[in-house]
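quick one before i forget lol
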Amino acid sequence: MLPLTELDQKYVWHPFTQMQDWLGHEPIVITSGKGATLQDSKGRSYLDANSSIWTNLHGHRNPALDKALRGQLAKVAHSSFLGLTNEPAAKLAGELVRLANPINLSEVMGPDDTLSKVFYSDDGSTAMEVALKQAYQFAQRSGLSASPRFLSLEGAYHGDTLGAVSLGHIDLFQKSYANLLFPTDSVMSPYCYRCPFNRAAPKRADARTYRVCEWECVAKVEEVCATKQAQGEPYTAMVLEPGLQGAAGMIPQPEGWLQQVSKVLRRHGTQLIADEVMTGFGRATVDEDSNGQPVWFASHAEGVQPDFLVLAKGLTGGYLPMAATLTTQRVFNVFLGRYEEFKSFFHGHSYTGNALGSAVALANVELLETKRTRQQRHRLAAALRTESAVLWELPQVGDMRQCGLILAVELVEDWKTRKPLALKDRAGFRVCEAMARRGVLTRPIGNVIVVMPPYCTTPSQVQQILTCLHDSIVEIFPNHPKN
């Protein structure tokens, strides 16, 4: 065993990891990377098929991002954002506001809908905590609610700080901390593949494309919002991941769902908090607007402008931990007042507005808008769609759903019945372990295999990833015949 491995297993506690399993085998030690590949301490190469947990947009050691980081390091790495500012953080705020208010939405946006204020934090959880606290105080100070309450989707996950955990509805993450959390309500997720209202028999296609329903999932949102409003305490905000829910199992929303839900919320005076930590910066959509410009956020792909836009992960292209919460002037105004009124937003982080992170994020935005990156994203989306088709021949593949540059493959006992695999069998993890042995790294969500490579991944690399996934499923389920 390598000295690095011994150090790790002796001292480190890893996130979302059963450490008893971890201590029982020799882990992969990553030492370097370039483009869509990573190298380990034994000289083996791997394709990074989940963008290092959904963060890396342009690949490892990207020259433009490396240059931005080195350039800022030659000036200053960090200075306080409490009572001070810095050049890259101020410039980045302007760029984020520009991206968050696309011209094609200007006709449906009123002056109160413009996302004009940026609050920096460290990661997705803390950015969600910011949105939660701002929405809570806005509701109280505006006289909208004395006891603000929030709504989110079944299976929701919005981070690991206590406020963010309270917004979630996954027992694995919530149950252990029940006495520390505040109550929130949930409503059904538009999970077409397993929706009780979907009357369509299983087919060898994304369940969204052949569903048979009456939008009961939207009606459920209307029902709970109407009930709360009738009680005189409308929901302060609904929190959701536009486009698709990540930790719930990469559950994509059918086209039109978000737009309909947004209208329901507006009717009932409920704000929308868009958690685009994972879906933002072009990850969940390759759409273009009527002016031929890329749509960078899944909310905008449905013509929806949220009241809060929560960003992290891809903000710095996967280089540094940084996050941002964008909101409106209307929300900002309730925090204005005389010093002695103590209306300030009493929340912050030591590394808020970090200069290194801001400089890399600025370079990331510039890189996103280049013609080359736009072409790469379209090629990647097409390659994922084409190369994944071979997986339909495997009876363990129940549903495959692609949302922009994200592909999710749900493994089942039998695709004809949608019968789930037992979690104790660890089928998803075993498939991913088999993929690692073949030179591809990703991580499952239960029995859903996630493929989310960097934008620079070539069609031939996508083919390698999907071939590897196919062969790994066959390895783990050797006794199942093809369809």
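fyi The chain has a mean pLDDT of 95.
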